[in-house]
Design a protein that fits this description.
heterodimer, A: 284 residues, alpha+beta, Uridine Diphospho-n-acetylenolpyruvylglucosamine Reductase, domain 2, Enolase-like, domain 1, 3 domains, five-stranded antiparallel β-sheet, B: 800 residues, Aldehyde Oxidoreductase, domain 3, Aldehyde Oxidoreductase, domain 4, seven-stranded mixed β-sheet, five-stranded mixed β-sheet, 26 strands
Chain lengths: 284, 800
């Protein structure tokens, strides 16, 4: 449980970090809270030549509202900081999910940017950001780009992020009053990761039906995804239970020693239904 | 502080040290010029070793030495407890070498060791070792391993069978089964578990070239036994040339009883380096791959009886998975410690058990908290539920009908406790099972359970209740039994203690038992404080070093309080008697006239004419005025061999709620009424019960070591092996009945394992009960949401 040897540098600024990543040519990894990367390094499953520590870059921390009403969450904002943030407090699904992410140490050290960059197929934050239609701001020494979260994840531990890019910010839509949100998960007890985790944002009822529905699912496929068939069914007027049955449409459902394909498919639907119901209940 | 703390909830004196980080575990010990060892482990479950090239590793930075199996001149590790002893039953024995030479039998078996200046360098160098393997087909399931065509692990073990052993009356049991009104048959899997002590194992070897002596610091439950086994069986070094020291041990649960390959490795490594100390600390992944696992039985159960609830016979055939090679007492666990107590607290006239010990391509299996008795309790307590459900009788009522009656003791059970014991009489000496059961059922609200079930149903939950009325055998045991041919492990099981009284009246106790978190430093001080009438603060308890403690067999099998404490009481009695004789001399009275009350020694009828224990110690230790023939100093050693085991019992009741949609099980209440006899420190007893109960619940609901078919350990870390967390559990509701053990002066029985022995079956029974409306008769553990949900789908839905 000791990592292979690596070089360590503490970045003095964002530009410094980006320059170091650019010159390392893929041999470097950025480290923030280290809650995902360090365990992999201790098992020697990850063995970067260099760690570029971005943990102290104040410019990447904190939550603020953008002029257009959206909310910017700095990549280094920790789970615990998100939980206690006065702006983010209004996002019901964050309040549901964050207290159950990892343990106190993970929540104190783990960051939103790190969670997304790591792209674990079962971590909670990606599902939440998918349901919120978040945007990921990524920067390299070459350029900055804004990536819709819906096109960010490509597979297990794989995303569109380049080796020389850092996530600097995650942008959330400003809270709207006519939707409710919730997060429901069934956890794999050993790791605490989700066997099926579902984030739902639903609302805008026009008297005949729900006009807005976004559902993010984690733990089920090879990467977190938007359950488009569920959303379509909800907006199309199907009952929530009928809609939830589409939770894994078009998805190759994962199977492991904790949950096989049949069970995971089933509980994905159960959690979709529970998240939808809880989100609607929050509408009051 | 009051003098007499016996039976009081005294705070543990070791906790200040252990909780504040001032404990001293093996990894805290840093010796000058210490080198570090890392062990290369096989990635294959079964393979021939073609060759090992260490040349590159030797050139790596900091590398001092690289060893492979051929470099190690020692014997294979010992296996000390064959099934059936040497009474003619064949055990096809294969034990590990310090490092494998020709083949590997499980993923994680050691094949090479690197010694380097730092642990990091040692680990880096492991990656430079090239091992040529010829992979072979593997088998991990004990039943499948015995079938025709299964991969064969050892030439001397056809069909991978270590032994085929049986107890009980075969013909009588068959006749009883044939004649029964009802016979219920069920296959039961008691899954493999990974024990998970908080501190992994580790050791430091130190060879002294000046004296040709070896010292090893080891995280072990049994330093004296390890010295004996290393000397006599492994290294060929005389016993007086080896010193074993177990410093603070951070949990063990049985895993640290045994002789492991790293002991001879670090000792030889130190010798090869001319006497530099060599430390090896086990990583958590290594702990999962290379330290013993527990349980892993497949049992075919038949329970037979009458429609009025009387159980007339139990017949089992058990396949016990013992791993790729045998651990130190692996075969003893599923035989003596399992089948001999299979009928538990019931008066079942016919019991017959066949046990097949089996090699598979998995790490060795040996004693894990409860060791055989949790497996036995699971079988008999599932049997009681299955039988009750089959005849449509209340499950508690069936147990009540079959309990050994309070006037039925001493009771010799039919699985041969008393018969194969080489002259020792092992029998269940005491018990009173109904009051404990009634109390537990009352606390759990058993009478109103149907109403509670209906209320839960209205919330979408299925409530289930389960009980486990267990019998434990503790304080193993008389040496003439456990050392008997055909029964035990050819060694004794007595215990020892030494008490020295300094001239200031302060007392040092050394003992042969070995704590690993139980609080012995507190409980021994409570006992001896009581015996000598002195405050606990005047007593220090020392242990764990073969140099300075009397020989003892260590701590496991819940034996310390019943066997070890009794040795200490005997030593205290010797101290008291000598003090009394000296008091008589000081007071110029005859010994017969000296009475002792607490620390006061006085002339009968004249309590004012007295000497205190401290005054006596001072005078006798100085011995300026010792009477003719009396040796100076108060220093006494006692050895104690118990005439019988002790027999704790009780009833645990679990209430669970099953979520119909997901199959998730919530343990909503847990009630335990235990009878562990008298208590030295009720707070420590509660703590032992808490820990044991939770470990047993873990088996029922969450834990399971999973190997792939080709022998990869899929549950290879805490990311995939679910140890219980406090937040998953309700408050544990504990109560007691007290039936003192008649075999020791304290009337104590032992409690280290009781919780783990009882709780697994209670929770499993509760979940099976919750699923009764679905027509479920039995589910194997762990009762994960997937297992439970699938069972609910296999029927058309709730019948009621």
């Amino acid at each position: 449980m000791i990592p292979a040897a690596f070089d360590y540098v503490r970045a003095t600024s964002l530009d410094d970090a980006l320059k170091r990543l650019a010159t390392a040519g893929g041999g470097a990894k950025a480290i923030a809270g280290g809650q995902s990367l360090l365990p992999l390094m201790k098992l020697r499953l990850a063995r970067p030549e260099t760690l570029v520590d971005i943990g102290r870059l104040a410019e990447l921390k904190g939550v603020h509202r953008l002029p257009d009403g959206r909310v910017a969450v700095g990549a280094l904002t920790t789970y615990d900081e998100m939980l206690r943030d006065p702006i983010l407090r209004h996002y019901g699904l964050l309040a549901d999910a964050i207290p159950n992410i990892g343990d106190v140490q993970v929540r104190n050290r783990g960051t939103i940017g790190g969670s997304i960059a790591h792209a674990d197929p079962a971590s909670d934050m990606p599902a939440i950001l998918l349901a919120l239609d978040a945007e990921v701001v990524a920067r390299s020494s070459r350029a900055e780009r804004v990536i819709p979260i819906t096109s960010f994840f490509e597979g297990a531990f794989a995303s569109v992020l380049h080796d020389d890019e850092l996530i600097t910010e995650v942008r959330l839509p400003g809270g709207r009053d006519d939707v409710g949100s919730a997060y429901r998960a069934i956890e794999q007890p050993a790791s605490g990761y989700s066997i099926a985790g579902v984030a739902a944002v639903v609302g805008a009822h026009d008297g005949t039906g729900w006009r807005y529905c976004a559902v993010g699912v984690t733990g089920v496929g090879d990467h977190p995804y938007r359950a488009a068939a569920v959303e379509k069914a909800v907006i199309g007027g199907e009952s929530l239970a009928q809609a939830a049955a589409h939770a894994t449409d078009g998805v190759t459902v994962a199977s492991d020693i904790h949950a096989d394909r049949e069970y995971r498919t089933h509980v994905a639907s159960v959690q979709v239904l529970r998240a939808l119901e809880a989100a609607i209940a929050r509408l009051g | 502080m009051a003098i007499d703390m016996l039976g009081k909830r005294v705070k543990r004196v070791e906790d200040q040290r252990l909780i504040s980080g001032a404990g001293r575990y093996v990894d805290d010990i840093k010796l000058q010029s210490m080198a570090h060892c890392a062990i290369l482990r096989s990635p294959y479950a079964h393979a021939l070793i073609r060759g090992i090239d260490t040349s590159k590793a030797r050139l790596m930075p900091g590398v001092l030495d690289v060893m492979i199996g051929a470099d190690i001149p020692y014997n294979p590790l010992p296996m000390a407890w064959p099934a059936g002893g040497s009474a003619g039953l064949r055990n096809n024995v294969n034990t590990p070498r310090a490092l494998a030479t020709d083949s590997v039998k499980w993923t994680g078996e050691g094949v090479a060791a690197v010694i380097a200046e730092t642990p990091e360098q040692a680990l880096d160098a492991l990656e430079a070792i090239v091992v040529g393997y010829d992979p072979l087909p593997a088998v991990v399931d004990a039943e499948k391993a015995t079938l025709a065509g299964a991969p064969q692990l050892h030439e001397n073990a056809p069909n991978n069978i270590v032994f085929e052993w049986a107890v009980g009356d075969k013909a009588g049991t068959a006749a009883a089964v044939d004649a029964a009104d009802v016979v219920v048959r069920q296959r039961l899997v008691n899954q493999r578990l990974i024990p998970n002590p908080m501190e992994t194992r580790g050791d430091i070897g130190l060879y002294n070239p000046g004296t040709d002596e070896y010292t090893i610091w080891m995280s072990s439950q049994t330093p004296h036994i390890q010295r004996l086994l290393l000397a006599a069986f492994v290294m060929g070094v005389p016993e007086h040339k080896i010193r074993c020291i177990s410093p603070d041990v951070g949990g063990a649960f049985g895993t640290k009883i045994f002789t492991y390959a790293d002991y001879p490795i670090v000792l030889l490594a130190s010798k090869r380096l001319g006497g530099r100390p060599v430390k090896w600390i086990e990583g958590r992944r290594e702990n999962y791959q290379a330290t013993i696992h527990g349980r892993d039985h497949i049992t075919y159960l038949e329970v037979a009886g009458k429609r009025d609830g009387e159980v007339t016979a139990i017949r089992v055939k058990t396949f016990a998975n013992l791993g790729g090679r045998l651990s130190t007492i692996g075969p003893g666990i599923p035989t003596t410690l399992y089948a001999r107590v299979l009928s538990g607290c019931y008066r079942i006239p016919h019991v017959y058990a066949e046990v097949v010990g089996v090699y598979t391509n998995t790490v060795f299996v040996d004693a894990y908290r409860g060791a055989g008795r949790p497996e036995a309790t699971y079988v008999i307590e599932r049997a009681m539920d299955l039988f009750a459900n089959e005849i449509g009788m209340d499950r508690a009522e069936v147990r009540r009908r079959n309990f050994i009656a309070p006037e039925g003791f001493p009771y010799e059970n039919p699985s041969g406790l008393g018969t194969a014991s080489g002259g020792a009489k092992i029998y269940i000496d005491s018990g009173n099972y109904e009051p404990a059961m009634d109390k537990a059922l009352e606390m759990a609200g058993y009478a109103g359970i149907e109403k509670a079930k209906a209320a839960a149903r209205a919330r979408g939950k299925y409530l289930g209740i389960g009980q486990s009325s267990y019998l434990e055998v503790c304080g193993v045991a008389p040496s003439k039994w456990i050392g008997a041919v055909g029964e035990g492990w050819g060694a004794a099981m007595w215990e020892s203690a030494n008490i020295k009284v300094h001239l200031t009246g302060k007392v040092v106790i050394t003992m042969g038992t070995q704590p690993q978190g139980q609080g012995h430093e507190t409980t021994y001080a409570q006992i001896i404080g009581h015996e000598l009438g002195i405050p606990m603060e005047d007593i220090v308890v020392q242990h764990s070093d073969t140099q300075g403690t009397p020989f003892g067999y260590g701590s496991y099998g819940s034996r310390t309080s019943s066997v070890g404490s009794t040795a200490a009481i005997k030593a205290a009695a010797k101290i008291r008697e000598k003090a009394r004789r000296y008091a008589a001399h000081m007071l110029e009275a005859s010994v017969e006239d000296i009475e002792v009350e607490g620390a006061n020694y006085f002339v009968k009828g004249s309590p004012e004419v007295k000497k205190t224990f401290q005054e006596i110690a001072f005078a006798l230790d100085l011995a300026f005025d010792a009477p003719e023939g009396m040796e100076p100093y108060l220093d006494e050693t006692a050895y104690y061999d118990t005439p019988n085991c002790t027999w704790p019992f009780g009833t645990h009741v679990a209430l669970v709620e099953v979520d119909e949609a997901t199959g998730q099980v919530e343990l909503v209440r847990y009630v335990a009424v235990d009878d562990v006899g008298n208590k030295i420190n009720p707070m420590i007893v509660d703590g032992q019960l808490h820990g044991g109960i939770v470990q047993g619940v873990g088996q029922a609901l969450w834990e399971g070591a999973v190997y792939s078919d080709d022998g990869q350990l899929l549950s290879g870390s805490m990311l995939d092996y679910a140890i219980p967390r406090a937040s998953w559990l309700p408050t544990l509701e504990l109560d007691e009945t007290v039936t003192p053990s008649p075999v020791n002066p304290l009337g104590v029985k032992g409690v280290g394992e009781a919780g783990a022995i009882a709780s697994t079956a209670a929770v499993a029974n509760a979940v099976n009960d919750a699923l009764k409306p679905f027509g479920v008769k039995h589910l194997d553990m762990p009762l994960t949401p997937q297992v439970v949900w699938k069972a609910m789908q296999s029927t058309k839905g709730a019948q009621a």
